[in-house]
Design a protein that fits this description.
- By secondary structure, the chain is α/β, with parallel strands linked by helices.
- It is built from 9 helices and 26 strands.
Length: about 575
């Protein structure tokens, strides 16, 4: 039975893993205030007052064909839209609650029905977001933290009144009135019991056995089909062994906000998507339509420009598997398919020759994905037995052939096999991600240890890499010495904010990537080495759903940077 269930789960999620890129849509009654989807709670708007905004909500400009067309032109394969967000307003015709877009507004239409019909026509999977625990409109919705306590007394709430009389009946409506649903995207399950979590999964499966369910259905681990990372969070290579996604905003808000005009560029979206896909994940990228039913013009412009690149390079994105290398590559990223490897090279790193360390396969042919004639690029392969070191060199044309990122295709003899230990990269740097370290706690000290290979000995700066949340005071989190031991040398220092990395492919608002130089070491010989870091920010790999926003400063990795190649 266990094998049978696993087979069903594998088949159920196959389409999603091949899709890689989806559109998230946060659209609801809150759009009328143009201050984001949390405005009701942020301003403590009473229920009776909030209900009156429905009389003004008339999104006459909504056009399902246009919305689905934007997603399709962007290269997105599925849409996840807020059928009900935390304000409790149903964006479809709910029979169990009159507080919905058909019964409570002058609009009087069901946009979910129109989207379902249009998604089917254009070959896009329709999926629903449903806020299953938080509902500020309902007197008996109970969350661990985020409750409506300005209208209702927490002590008087009876959760099962809400659960059985609104939440589950509305989920049933979504699964029985709109055809096949690709997935249900649940959110913020604080306080939901393990029993109720599992029963909700079974409830969904009873109506649509193939409907996917994300991990935020519960705070208990291993419930749901895949892991939704924290908002805007991109993990390290190898951090997640199962399927996962990054939900990300196109600007800095989710629901429409007229004050938020900080937009990601097409290049930034492409780089972040490639980084995510190369780590085995999906990117769910959000737009926030206006109260009139319009996806903001800037959103459409950016998405369509990104979509042009994806259309040209989709072979290296859709249906690919994660990079077999356990670290980020300095010139870009890698995706693979059977007997094929795609090298995604950032254009500013383009040079006359690209080198790749650690690929064991014989390369049958290398060519540019942008070259319709697939003309062979000159290659060399070598192996140094004394240090077990494989080197591939690829001669490249002078100019990068595509925008933002240009892709080299490697046809391999057999499926990709690589040296999966940490090693020095072509620039001479070594990147050691925390998730791959051996961690231990002794005498209240947390230590992480790594083994790695050096091929170019020399002098190195030791650099600590952290992600820091906006408005965080660094000294509140790093006020104790960290210690590093490597090759008989020791360093002790309190990390400082020495360098801020702009537009990091693995970090975005509300976080910034911060580099701290801890000191300098000398490695005199080629071969295997080890490094030990002692720091109070070291954490073991998260078990289950990680609440990314709970950490103001998160230690990501430690790097060795050669002093003559920085």
């Amino acid at each position: 039975m266990l094998v049978e269930e696993q087979t069903k789960a594998t088949e159920r999620i196959k389409w999603w893993q091949e899709a890689k890129f989806g559109m998230f849509i946060h659209w609801g009654l809150y759009a009328t205030l143009a201050k984001g989807e949390w405005v009701m709670a942020a301003s403590k708007i009473p229920v009776k007052e909030y209900e009156q905004f429905a009389t003004q909500f008339n999104p006459k400009e909504f056009n399902a064909k246009e919305w689905v067309g934007v997603a399709k032109r962007a290269g997105m394969k599925y849409i996840v839209i807020t059928a009900k967000h935390h304000d409790g307003f149903a964006m479809y015709h709910s029979k169990v609650e009159k507080f919905n877009i058909v019964d409570a507004t002058p609009f009087g239409r069901d946009p979910m029905k129109e989207l379902a019909e249009e998604c089917q026509k254009q070959g896009i999977k329709l999926c629903f977001y449903y806020s299953h625990v938080i509902d500020w409109h309902h007197p008996h919705s109970v969350h661990e933290y985020y409750n409506n306590t300005w209208d209702y007394n927490l002590e008087e709430k009876a959760f099962y009144n809400y659960w059985h009389n609104l939440a589950k009946p509305q989920i049933q409506e979504l699964l029985t009135q709109y055809g096949d649903i690709g997935l249900l995207w649940f959110d913020t399950a604080g306080g939901l019991s393990k029993k109720d979590s599992k029963e909700l999964v079974e409830f969904v499966r009873s109506f649509q056995p193939n409907c996917l369910i994300n991990s935020r259905v519960s705070h208990w681990p291993n419930i749901g089909d895949y892991q939704s990372k924290g908002d805007n969070e991109i993990p390290m290579y190898g951090e997640d062994s199962g399927p996962w996604e990054t939900p990300m905003t196109l600007n800095q808000s989710w629901g429409y906000s007229d004050r938020d005009q900080v937009w990601k560029t097409p290049e930034s979206i492409i780089r972040k998507m490639v980084n995510i896909v190369s780590k085995g994940g999906n990117l769910l990228l959000n737009v926030g339509p206006t109260a009139e039913g319009i996806i903001p013009e800037k959103s459409v412009e950016v998405l369509e420009q990104a979509g042009e690149w994806i259309e040209r390079n989709g072979e290296a994105i859709y249906g690919t598997n994660a990079s077999p290398f356990p670290y980020e590559l300095e010139w870009g990223a890698v995706t693979i398919k059977p007997s094929r490897m795609y090298l995604h090279v950032n254009n500013e790193k383009w040079s006359d020759q690209l080198k790749l360390f650690g690929l064991k396969n014989k390369v049958v042919k290398a060519y540019l994905l942008a070259d319709s004639e697939k003309r062979s690029l000159p290659i060399t392969q070598s192996y140094t037995e004394s240090i077990d070191h494989h080197v591939l060199g690829i001669d490249l044309p002078k100019d990068a052939p595509d925008q933002y990122i240009s892709i080299i295709v490697l046809e391999l003899e057999g499926n990709a096999q690589v040296d999966d230990q940490f090693m020095q990269q072509v620039s001479g740097s070594v990147n050691l991600d925390l998730v791959h370290a051996e961690t231990a706690v002794e005498k209240n000290e947390k230590t992480a240890k790594w083994d790695f290979k050096i091929t170019q000995p020399g002098a190195f700066d030791v650099v600590l890499v952290n992600f820091k949340k906006i408005n965080t005071v660094w000294e509140d989190h790093y006020h104790e010495e960290v210690k590093v031991h490597i090759a008989g040398q020791g360093l002790k220092t309190i990390p400082q904010e020495d360098q801020l990395i702009k537009d990091s492919p693995a970090c975005q608002y509300p976080y910034s990537e911060v580099h701290s130089i801890l000191g300098r070491v000398h490695l005199h010989d080629s071969g295997n080495n080890s490094l030990a870091l002692t720091c109070n920010k070291i954490q073991e790999k998260a078990f289950g759903t990680e609440i990314w926003q709970a950490e103001a400063v998160k230690l990501r990795s430690i790097k060795l940077v050669p002093i003559d190649k920085k």
